[in-house]
C-alpha cells in the first residue's frame, strides 16, 4: 500500500557504534502461507540505521497479500510486518534525523523515496545486505524496510518518525500504513471539502478511515459500499450516511450510485484492490469534476480499464501513496491529535494478541472477515 514508518521512543542509555548482535524471536515467512516462529540473530545497525525494540505490531492486509504469494516482489524467507510502535535500542553512525537518500519534498509533493524503494523491494538494507540471519547463519530478507514480526529489527533512519514520550505505542502502530493512508487519501490526495459527496468501496480499516476523514472534513453525503452488511454498523458510527450492498441490485453499482445522486459522486475511493471495483468507483464519479482514488493493492498482473469517455468528460483517476503524508513531519501530529482527543483511533483495534506467536493468530483473525486491525504486543 504505502511507505510505512516506524515510531520510536528513545531509551535511556542508547549508544551509537557499540551495539552487539541480538538473538530474539521472530515470525519468519519461509514460503507461501508458511509462517513459523524461530530464533533469529539481528545484527547491529550500520551507518544511518536504527535498531528497534518492537513494542506492538499491527497486521495489515499487505502482509497477508505477500504471505499468500500474490506479491510479485514477495521474497522468502523473510520477516514480514510494517505497522509498528517501537523503541530505539541502538543507532548507527551518522543518525541525526535528516534524510540523505532523497530530494527534499517540495510543496504538495510527498517524501516517497524512489532510491530507498529499490533496496526495500529487494529485501535488503540500503547497502544491499540483510541484518537478519537464522540459527544456521543463513540470510533472512527484510520486508518493506521494516520487518516488525520480530522482537528486534533494523531500519534505515529515514523510515522512522519520532512521537511523543506519552504516545501509546499500540495505537501508534495503526498509523504505520493503513489508517494513515485512508485519512490522507481523503485529506491530502483528493482534499475532500465540506458539503461534498463521497463514496467508499470496501469497508476494511482503510475504507473506514476514509469515511472518518471525509466526515471530519464535513462531507454532506457519504456512501459506504460493501458486500458484507455487518460492516455497515461501524461505517455509520464513523459518518456514513448511506450504506449500499451491490448484491441488493441487479445492475452495476456505478449505475446505482449515479441514480442515487444527480450526476454522480464528487469523490470516490477504491479500498478493495479489485480492478473491477476500481472501474466502478471511477464511473460513479460526477461527470465534469468527479475524482476517484485507487488505494487498494491489486493482485499481480491485474490491469485497470475504462472507456476514455469517462475521462474526457472531466473525471480524474488517481492513486495515493501513504495518503500523501510526509511521514516524518506529518504523522507525529496525528498522534498528538489522538492524545488530545481530536482524532479517534481505538475503534480500529478489534483483536489483541501477545508475543511473537500472536502474529500467527493475527493472520487467522484477519482471514476471518471480522477483524479491522489485530495488534500484537511483544
Order of helices and strands: EEEEHEEHEEEEHHEHEHEHEHEHEHHEHE
Q: Which range does the strand content fall in?
A: 15-25%
Q: Termini distance?
A: 25 Å
CATH class of the largest domain: Alpha Beta
Task: Give a short summary of the structure.
It comes from Effrenium voratum. One of its GO terms (cellular component) is cytosol. This protein has twelve helices and 18 strands.
Q: Which secondary structure elements does this structure contain, and how are they paired or packed?
A:
Elements: E1 6-10, E2 22-31, E3 34-42, E4 49-58, H1 61-67, E5 78-79, E6 84-91, H2 114-120, E7 132-133, E8 139-140, E9 152-156, E10 160-162, H3 169-172, H4 178-189, E11 197-201, H5 205-216, E12 221-225, H6 232-238, E13 242-244, H7 253-260, E14 267-270, H8 275-284, E15 291-294, H9 309-312, E16 316-319, H10 327-330, H11 332-339, E17 349-354, H12 358-367, E18 373-377
Parallel strand pairs: 1-6, 1-10, 11-12, 11-14, 12-13, 14-15, 15-16, 17-18
Antiparallel strand pairs: 2-3, 2-5, 3-7, 4-6, 4-9, 4-18, 7-8
Written account of the structure:
There is one protein chain. The chain has two domains: 6-176 and 345-377, Medium-chain alcohol dehydrogenases, catalytic domain (Quinone Oxidoreductase, Chain A, domain 1), CATH 3.90.180.10; 181-323, NAD(P)-binding Rossmann-like Domain (Rossmann fold, 3-Layer(aba) Sandwich), CATH 3.40.50. The protein has 378 residues and is of the alpha/beta class. The protein is elongated, with a radius of gyration of 21 Å. It has helices at residues 61-67, 114-120, 169-172, 178-189, 205-216, 232-238, 253-260, 275-284, 309-312, 327-330, 332-339, 358-367, and strands at 6-10, 22-31, 34-42, 49-58, 78-79, 84-91, 132-133, 139-140, 152-156, 160-162, 197-201, 221-225, 242-244, 267-270, 291-294, 316-319, 349-354, 373-377. The longest helix is centred in the middle third of the chain and has 12 residues, at 178-189. Strands 1, 4, 6, 9, 10, 17 and 18 form a seven-stranded mixed β-sheet that branches. Strands 13-12-11-14-15-16 form a six-stranded parallel β-sheet, with helices on both faces. Strands 5-2-3-7-8 form a five-stranded antiparallel β-sheet, with no helix packed on it. It has twelve helices and 18 strands. The model is unreliable at 1-8 and 98-105 (pLDDT under 50). 48% of the residues are buried.
